[in-house]
Design goal:
mainly alpha; three-stranded antiparallel β-sheet; globular
């Protein structure tokens, strides 16, 4: 079972642009490996091992947090596992519009200090 918390962030204009780039890159990686996985069977860890090979071909992926890219591959692997257990329909491609614009990462404190971000103010009303 997954447990998650949602917090309000207060980014400035430059940080908003970086977050929007992260939305696009996570969607791109998800769709790229969804197409690849339909052609050949790859596990989640195989996709993560193969992820650095995309950086020379698509240099814009280096601009965003690599943890969010890995998390999108875990989401894709989870979607396929649910499909094979007959819990969900087959995974679909994510569109730029009409899809939920979110991403996951693993490191949050009172200010988000990712490697690609400056300090983003986060409103922590409860303890994690």
């Amino acid at each position: 079972m997954y447990k998650s918390y949602q917090f309000r962030m207060y980014p400035n204009k430059q940080q908003i642009i970086m977050i929007q780039k992260t939305f696009g890159c996570t969607r791109f990686v998800y769709n790229h490996y969804l197409e690849k996985r339909k052609e050949e069977h790859l596990t989640g860890f195989d996709m993560i091992k193969e992820l650095p090979n995309l950086y020379p071909e698509y240099p814009f992926l280096k601009e965003v947090d690599s943890c969010s890219l890995r998390c999108s591959l875990f989401d894709l692997d989870d979607a396929f596992n649910r499909y094979f257990r007959h819990q969900n329909n087959d995974p679909k491609f994510k569109g730029k519009y009409g899809s939920k614009r979110s991403y996951r990462t693993n490191y949050i404190t009172s200010t988000y200090k990712g490697t690609k971000y400056e300090n983003i103010k986060v409103d922590l009303k409860r303890k994690v």
